[in-house]
User: What shape does this take?
Amino acid sequence: MGFVKDFKAFISRGNVVDMAVGVVVGGAFGKIVSSLVADIITPLISCATKGANLKEIYYCINPNAVAGQTFDYAAYPTVAAAHEAGYATMNYGLFIQNIIDFVIIAFCIFCVIRAIAKAKEKAEAKAKAEAEAKAAAEAAAKAAEPPAETVEDILKDIRAALKK
Assistant: This one.
């Protein structure tokens, strides 16, 4: 029964809900970044490489695999075509594409976390400034108040009145 109780406590703490929200937002964020890479950055890279698609850049590991033929990159413009013909390929273009994806995703996450940290710093600075202003106002109000009469002051007044 302790296991079930511990599980209920774990779920009720909210960690699971926070984690679920993080997974959902992360999945959506991943789709946005993947679209950025696939639809904007990759075409720009393709222009820079004269139309070559990074995912289709490869190196044939066994150019003599098909008997009687020497491998020709022009005859097999895609990785799939080379595989279909029986050649083994090292797909370094796909690896480069994945590195680009990673760097962009890491940069986007960094930007989001940095923006959140900056917003948090501003909120903390504002709260601190408000607290300092409130403390200064209270100190000014206290200084503006006439000092409260002490028992000694009252006794002095009574003595002065009795002397008259």
Notes: The chain has five helices and two strands. The two ends are 87 Å apart (CA to CA). The mean pLDDT is 83.
